[in-house]
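Annex B. Sample input.
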Amino acid sequence: MKRISTVVLALLLFATACGDTGSASEQTGDRTPATSNDDGTTGEQGGAETGAETGAETASGSAETAEAPLRIVSLSPTATEMLFAVGAGDLVVAVDQYSDYPDEAPVTDLDGFSPNVEAIAAYEPDIVVMVSGGDVQAGLEALGIEVLVQDAATSLDDTFAQILEIGEVTGHSSDARTVVSRMQTEIESLIAGAPDATGLSYFHELDPTLYSVTSTTFVGAVYALFGLENVADPADADGSAFGYPQLSDEYLIDTDPDLIFLADTLCCGQDASTVAERPAWEQLRAVQNGNVIELSDDTASRWGPRIVEFIAAISEAVRNL
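Annex B, continued. Sample output.
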């Protein structure tokens, strides 16, 4: 139950940071990763690195330093994954309690949801990476500690830009470009290798209480890469749930999705068998046809380098239909 409440809290923070992500769906409508340029135009996958790098140059703000930091504290599981992916893991002296990947990450009891300035400062960081700033950012900066705020991504371009930004501020720009280039190539291949799923529907489950995501979210935009239709969209047509509506058994039985993706396997022990045991769920076509896909909670909720694994899971599910 503690983990479920953490998921809900994370959703609220994520929703507040994200806002409307309709543009992400527009970018991915042709099932090819696209990039947003400064002039509002979009470029194809080959130009994504340039577009993202431009974003990184402007996004870092006061966090840009002439010399790479020597001690880093990460209060974001996604940022932690990015730091290690670009080769800056040896600079990380502490991460928040939910930064459980990679294994060598120095996990502490620091709370990324309710950061404590004194607790963070005790690790004597040169820079702190976090999802939201506010009073905590001001408190850290007053102590001479630089802060890099990276809000929740709303598109793949945001992911690429943040990785490049992490590389820039840690002195690992070349490694970051390599990571982004590899991700773009793998994502393009996964999408190209999957059949067009236009017309097929899906349900993405965040927890057993049936919280889900709509197409306005980063996660929903990823599914849109394959042309899949989200059964949760009508449940938050007015946006009052910020893209994270809570559905019901009756609603899902009525919409009868072709695919069910479970992003609550780790937190809540859900799998295809537990879903089949839910009252009346045995009549769902996804259950009957064996199209209940078990995801890793983490790769399906973080917008870092392992987003490729999430996309690969969707690609495989579509191919197996």
